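The data are passed on as follows:
___
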Amino acid sequence: MFKDNHLLKNLKIATKLNVLLTVIAVITVFLSGGVLSLILSHNAEGVVTDKALVLMETMSAVRNYTSTRVNPELASRLETDYQFLPQTVPAYSAREVFEYFREQGGYKDFFYKEATLNPTNLRDKADEFEAKIVEKFRNDESLEQVSGFRSFNSGDIFYIARPLEVSKESCLRCHSTPDVAPKSLLTTYGRENGFNWKLHEIVGAQMILVPADAVFESAKKLQVSVTSILIVCLALAIILINFFLRFSVTTPLKKMEQLAQRISTGDLSKEFAHPYNDEMGMLAASLNRMKVSLDIAMSMLNSETE
């Protein structure tokens, strides 16, 4: 403790100020970096959410078009064709259209899934995590959307989910019971999965998924850029403060110190001139008055001696 105080006493004003400014700069960069990270991450999440919701609305439109326009045109072939026509299924159309979206640069990191509790095609089977989301929608009909992150061995995934409801009577043709299902459906997928659905029942969740790294990549780049600019600005501020300190404080003080040393040796021929009326100017005037007073006192002392 004593050594630290001794070292501090021996430091010059400029050095002390630089140490203080450096500490302030480091704290400012650290705190602002943390706050900026939160703000940019939240903003990046909002941007991705907006994109995902647009995609989800688009997929809903594709589903509706398939259900109302495509399915009626191909419905008769479901009974006569040996293989089931997946083009009649809204979920299939949505997935195929979404793959075209993924070929675009702005959506290559997005993934689409209709996670279903009891799907006809097991490819759409909801896993344990997705099943909990579906149950959340089933238990709270007022809930329109959920989002968050889930972890995989390959990394975190950001997801947005909306309830998938049996909204049209026509859906039950393939999902009510095996007895009324098209023959080609039973031939292709069997009689075990995708049945016993009910009108207005929530059977799954429409989900958009994005790797978390893709969500925050742009935010990280922007944070680095802003932090770099902040560091440069703080460095320039420290340089300017040092220049001002040298011009207005340390250089005048050094000149005063030199004048005081000359006065202490009896040289009263010089005066300290400071052109500004700031604190340094007031100190210079006081030093000059002290010199004059000392000169008068020395003259009086010499007169009495003679």
